[in-house]
Design brief:
Layout lengths: L21 H12 L6 E5 L5 H7 L6 E5 L16 H8 L6 E5 L2 E3 L6 H5 E3 L1 H6 L5 E3 L1 H5 L3 E5 L6 H13 L1 E6 L2 E6 L3 E6 L8 H4 L4 E5 L5 H16 L1 H7 L1 H18 L6 H13 L6 H16 L7 H11 L22 H16 L21 E2 L7 H8 L16 E5 L5 E6 L11 H10 L15 E7 L2 E8 L9 H18 L3 E8 L2 E9 L2 H9 L2 E2 L5 H18 L4 E8 L12 H14 L2 E7 L13 H7 L3 E4 L1
Parallel strand pairs: 1-10, 1-11, 4-7, 7-10, 16-17, 16-20, 20-21, 21-22
Antiparallel strand pairs: 2-3, 5-6, 8-9, 12-19, 13-15, 14-15, 17-18
Helix pairs in contact: 1-13, 9-10, 11-13, 12-13, 12-15, 13-14, 18-19, 20-21
């Protein structure tokens, strides 16, 4: 299929041929009309069409006018969107050559390096002309285009930091290897993710103006239509695209007209006050909520060819811009948003009270499905988590090795790596054992020049230098929660669940992996395998029942197996086990006896470099005559013990 009237002819599924996903389509169209909305995040299960939808967007994007001889796609009509070179030419009154280019979707791979992202020294010009010039990176390509990150929640932290800086400022500033360049980096950030694979850092989530949850349709007719269209596309892509060409062009023209109309679209003071009142009553603190909502509502009106925002426009905009800003806790599932604006104040107030109720559960006299009446703990009961005093929690947590005072922020521990192109490069050394991976060419050329090599520089093996990088050390927090019958006494399990949730919040902040092991009855169960989807663990804690015997040995054995499996994939993984228990145990694994068994398991924990912190849930004001194995574990596993 040849070039037809400017429509991109890459073999992507046509945007207008995609069945359903109307809310996601609207969000992408709004960002195309007004890029200052801040981008779109598509959340949903695998196989729901997220990537297909974004890549199809390239076919309907209008062309953009750029400076023809500039690698940064500078806007020749706006000096505020020019690189230093174009700005100087414009200031002198020089005529800037212009060209029309297709607006496109630039893919950012998860394996990208900082050099490829921001740009690096142009070695060709350095060798041939002896000058220092920039070889543009992906941010230069993305300027005035769409930057797409598939599985954005898996993006390395060090890459995300650089990306966030550029997205926040709208500029990419490069000061490295003798090169000093600044160029605009104003792109529409579009990401997709599967929530099951982990949460998104709040700093990145806040950069997305609009968030859409995508679910596969459950209507058999729609699912059948999806299969038919995909089969037709694969059988003959060219004919299939021709069938939707007219609709694609119509939608493209609609975007162009909406951009021209956008500056004339207005919103009434009544709607603006109604929006602000709703946001306040929903407890949303960021001002970005109202700003993004208004921009989105105006874009919706412009797409419909109107210059006045209506109540319906505002409702649609709120559904896209507010839900991901309703979270009361980092890993809390946002509650469903009610956007019936005629009743918004009442519903917002009701939702606000609901959230307060979730954060402050019922007092102990009202918690639990039934009163505890059996000293052996044979009754199965379910207690909601109890709120943990923040000061008490800080005292408990401040001595764990994940909270060392010299470790700050989400990236709290680094190791030096060689030959691995991931992490922050900070120095260079000669290759070790002739391992020539991740060679620093600039440093190698400098060594050759210092050796006295004249132009053109000739590199010898002795000149080669490999990068030293600081790489984030992966960490795993395993919560071992005693949910046996004895933990129901005085509702200890409610306090234990509350402490576990607070610890989970810290794992979220520091981007640790997490897992949950609960033990009751005859054995321990890995309720949540290793994950970064902290919401899954929070839900498991909420519904975890209590009752039965205490298989402490089984819990330690499950911890050992979990750590060994994890280190098969991540050899440098740090593992900390957080055991929340009253120390009772009465289910041995072997005939050796519990004490001997726990000593052996503790010794294995030390050999496997698993650090243990024990939170003792026994009350300090009451003498408990029944034996506890916490002192044994403290000595044998060299564990730190704290009272909750």
């Amino acid at each position: 299929m040849g070039e037809i009237e400017g429509i991109a002819q890459r073999p992507f599924f046509p945007f207008t041929a995609i069945v359903g996903l109307e809310k996601a389509k609207l969000a992408l169209l709004c960002s195309a009309v007004n890029p200052t909305i801040g981008g779109v995040l598509l959340k949903g299960d695998k196989g729901t069409g997220k990537s297909t939808l974004v890549r199809a967007l390239a076919g309907i994007l209008p062309d953009i006018e750029v400076v023809a001889d500039c690698p940064f796609n500078c806007n020749p009509r706006n000096p505020m969107e020019m690189c230093d070179s174009c700005y100087q030419r414009w200031k002198k009154g020089d005529s800037l050559p212009t060209a029309m280019r297709k607006m496109r979707v630039v893919d950012l791979p998860l394996s990208i390096t900082v050099d490829r992202l921001v740009g690096t020294l142009d070695l060709k010009r350095a060798l041939e002309e002896g000058i220092r010039a920039l070889h543009p990176g992906l941010l230069a390509e993305a300027n005035r285009n769409i930057l797409y990150i598939d599985e954005v929640n898996l993006l390395d932290d060090y890459v995300a930091d650089v990306l966030l800086d550029s997205a926040a400022m709208g500029w990419n500033i490069i000061e490295r290897e003798g090169v000093s360049v600044k160029h605009p980096a104003r792109f529409i950030l579009v990401g997709s993710m599967n929530p099951e694979e982990g949460e998104l850092r709040p700093q990145i989530l806040d950069r997305f103006g609009l968030v859409v949850d995508i679910e596969a349709p459950m209507d058999p007719i729609l699912r059948s239509e999806i299969v038919k269209r995909v089969e037709e596309f694969h059988a003959d892509p060219e004919s299939f695209r021709k069938r939707y060409l007219e609709k694609e062009l119509e939608l493209r023209n609609k975007i162009v007209q909406a951009r021209e109309l956008l500056s004339r679209v207005s919103i009434s003071d009544d709607l603006l006050r109604l929006l602000a009142d709703t946001v306040v009553k929903l407890g949303i603190r960021t001002n970005r909520a109202e700003i993004v909502t208004v921009k989105t509502a105006k874009a919706i009106a412009a797409l419909d060819g109107r210059v006045k925002v209506t109540l319906e426009d505002l409702e649609k905009a709120m559904e896209l811009s507010l839900p991901h800003r309703l979270k009361a806790k980092p890993f809390e599932q946002p509650p469903p948003l009610k956007v019936e604006l005629s009743q918004t104040s009442q519903e917002a107030q009701h939702h606000h009270h609901d959230r307060e109720h979730q954060q402050n559960p019922l007092p102990s006299s009202a918690t639990g499905s039934r009163e505890f009446r059996d000293a052996k703990g044979n009754f199965q009961e379910t207690f909601p988590p109890s709120k943990v005093d923040e000061i008490c929690y800080q005292q408990l947590f401040e001595r764990t090795f994940f909270a060392q005072p010299h470790l700050r922020g989400a990236r709290d521990c680094y190791t030096t790596v060689i030959g691995v192109p991931h992490g922050h490069p900070y120095s260079y050394i000669p290759p070790i054992n002739e391992d020539y991976r991740d060679i620093d060419l600039v440093a190698s050329l400098a060594c050759a020049a210092l050796r006295g090599s004249s132009l053109p520089i000739r590199l010898e093996k002795s000149d080669l230098r490999t990068r030293l990088r600081k790489s984030h050390t992966p960490s795993l927090t395993v919560i071992l929660l005693d949910s046996s019958g004895s933990m129901a006494a005085m509702k200890r399990i409610a306090i234990a669940k509350g402490a576990a949730l607070k610890l989970l919040e810290r794992s979220y902040t520091r981007r640790h992996y997490a897992s949950l092991i609960a033990f009751r009855g005859r054995k321990a169960d890995v309720l949540v395998p290793i994950t970064r989807n902290y919401l899954t663990i929070a839900k498991a804690l909420e519904g975890l029942p209590t009752g039965g015997r205490t298989p402490l040995s089984s819990a330690l054995q499950a911890l050992l197996q979990l750590a060994k499996m994890a280190r098969m994939k991540l050899p440098d993984l740090r593992v900390e086990a957080i055991l929340i228990t009253d120390g009772k145990a009465n289910v041995p694994l072997t005939s050796k006896g519990l004490a001997e068994e726990l000593k052996e398991l503790s010794a294995q924990l030390k050999r496997e470099r698993i650090s243990m912190v024990i939170y003792d849930t026994r009350p300090t004001s009451i003498i408990d005559p029944s034996p506890s194995y916490i002192p044994l574990l403290e000595e044998a596993a060299e564990a730190s013990v704290y009272r909750v």
